[in-house]
From TrEMBL:
Sites marked Interaction with tRNA: H132, Q338
Protein task: Catalyzes the 2-thiolation of uridine at the wobble position (U34) of tRNA, leading to the formation of s(2)U34.
Protein name per its UniProtKB record: tRNA-specific 2-thiouridylase MnmA
Keyword annotations: ATP-binding, Cytoplasm, Disulfide bond, Nucleotide-binding, RNA-binding, Transferase, tRNA processing, tRNA-binding
Subcellular locations according to the entry: Cytoplasm
Keyword Metal-binding attributed: no
Length: 371
């Protein structure tokens, strides 16, 4: 197999050690491997290094050293324009519309397994090998054996055709074992810290980043119970549903408040107490499936955030080709724009990813449950 080892992936674990070991394992397996680093910013010198992000000049130098040690060809692909349009601008537009996007999922969908994979296949390669912590077994996408590092959530958007041309060598091992392999081989990235936060926000200040892009758009913060204005804000983009900290509200009791809803047109952020923060289900947009589309309705597990605990659910047909996902237990912090990733429900096969759909709206408690 001719494999294209992509050294720069989105997400908190791709700082070089994962992709270095993935490439090494592909070489060990006898594949014809070529390394590629993705340049995703028009000014990579501004991107942070250390443990705060990825895509820096430092990272590309580390990747080149690993490729030299493995004896494989190495290239840098400039996908900055595509990344800006499909990931960064999408991120800004989603927040401006009162939604909460996941840029790592969007990067996998639009960059790694669209732009990169398409180019690699066009050049005659058979697959893209990445350092994602997920498993592929018989063409089925599954969680990593290392639950703490699992990245199947941000891969749930992939299609069967994309998965057929993907290789994830690290899904069957822990991150500690990955670092051990890197150290055994003498890779300089063996002890490099994992990345965190969003790679295109250098200082980690998402609210500040959005303020610089969207400007000041002040409005009220309103308490759901009393209807009273309890605070002011400089932009609804500074909030996400479920948020508790940084609300800047003054209320008459000591109970914590959570963001319940965001209305960007009226610029209103509504907050409420914990008993109002749970929702029984969501309506989504059209789903994508990692395999054959299951017959509706069906039972599943659903995960609504990258690090959320999966919960049992019932999935049925929604409106306009979307899904209605009803939770077994009410969930907090379910925001429009998030991805609801579906997994098989039973304990034996509950690590298999079925697909995903983007949350459109939350169901109200008094809505009639569909049969």
């Amino acid at each position: 197999m001719r494999g294209w080892a992509d050294d720069e992936g989105p997400g908190r674990d791709e700082r070089g050690v994962d992709s270095a070991v993935a490439a090494a394992l592909a070489v060990d397996a006898g594949h014809d491997v070529t390394g590629v680093h993705l340049a995703l910013s028009p000014n990579r010198q501004t991107l942070r290094s250390g443990s705060r992000g990825c895509c820096s000049v430092e990272d590309s130098h580390d990747a080149r050293r690993v490729a030299d040690e493995l004896g494989i060809p190495f290239y840098v692909w400039d996908l900055a324009d595509r990344f800006t349009e499909d990931v960064v601008e999408d991120f800004v537009a989603e927040y401006a519309a009162g939604r909460t996007p996941n840029p790592c999922l969007r990067c996998n969908e639009k960059i790694k397994f669209s732009a990169v994979l398409d180019r690699a296949l066009g050049l005659g390669f058979d697959a893209v090998v990445t350092g994602h912590h997920a498993r592929l077994e018989g063409g089925e996408l599954r969680r990593s054996v290392d639950a703490g590092k699992d990245q199947s959530y941000v891969l749930g958007v992939l299609t069967p055709e994309q998965l057929a041309a993907a290789v994830f060598p690290l899904g069957g091992m822990t991150k500690d074992r990955v670092r051990e392999i890197a150290a055994e081989r003498g890779f300089g990235v063996a002890a490099k810290p994992d990345s965190h936060d969003i790679c295109f926000i250098p200082d980690g200040d998402t609210r500040g980043f959005l303020a610089r892009r969207l400007g000041s758009l002040p409005g009220p913060v309103v308490d759901a119970t009393t209807g009273q204005r309890v605070g002011e804000h400089e932009g609804t983009y500074g909030f996400t549903v479920g948020q508790r900290r940084g609300l800047g509200v003054a209320v008459g009791d000591q109970r914590p408040r959570y963001v319940l809803s965001i209305e960007p047109v009226s610029r209103t952020v509504t907050v409420g107490t914990a008993d109002l923060a749970g929702v029984p289900g969501v309506l989504t947009g059209a789903p994508t499936w990692t395999g054959a589309a299951p017959e509706l309705p069906f039972a599943a597990q659903v995960q609504v955030r990258a690090h959320a605990t999966p919960v049992g659910c019932r999935v049925s047909a929604g409106d306009d080709g979307g899904l209605l996902i009803e939770f077994a237990d009410e969930q907090r912090g379910v925001a429009p724009g998030q991805s609801a990733v579906l997994y098989e429900p039973d304990a034996a096969r509950g690590d298999r990813v079925l697909g995903q759909a983007t949350v459109r709206t939350a169901r109200e408690r008094d809505e009639t449950v569909r049969s």
